[in-house]
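As a warm-up, study this chain.
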Amino acid sequence: MSRQMVRPGGRSARVQASVHTAVRELESELGRDALTVPLVAQRAGVTPSTIYRRWSDLQALLSDVAVERLRPDTAPEDHGSLSADLMTWAEQFLDEMSSPSGRAYVRDALLGDPDGSNAGQCSAYAAEQIDLVLARATDRGESTPDVESVVDHVVAPLMYRILFRPEGLDAAYAHRLVEEALTADTGSRRRKVSAD
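Now compare it with the structure written out below.
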């Protein structure tokens, strides 16, 4: 069953909000392993069939809740330079995603995502944040890489390490990735200019 990816309005939005709240509350009170569709439905004040109709099963529901919890709450901070802004953002991204709850949300988001749409949404959240950082730098007159270059050089290695090789992950690693991304971008611009 295909889930609706756009934010619903009206009654549908109220149902989604109450079910998401129920999942978060019950997970906090009882633990993730105790969650069932009937338990969530009872807490949310809906029928189990409402949950099954909308999310198909518990894993799809947990995945939907995880994607929403991975959505950034605020815009990236402005520290006055591209390097400082990206380093701060990368460090915060690493802290959030490598925390036990961050890893659990990533796992849940991907487990209930047979078509890859949740992964795409999570990627879009990071890209939107990076785009804001780059737009501010451009407004200050700084030369910037494109969003995909930052995703490839910073986000991708961070996520790989978070999921598969978490040892040695720290702010210094995130900062080094940003420095390398900015250096690689400068080098590619130089090569492009000299080739013209």
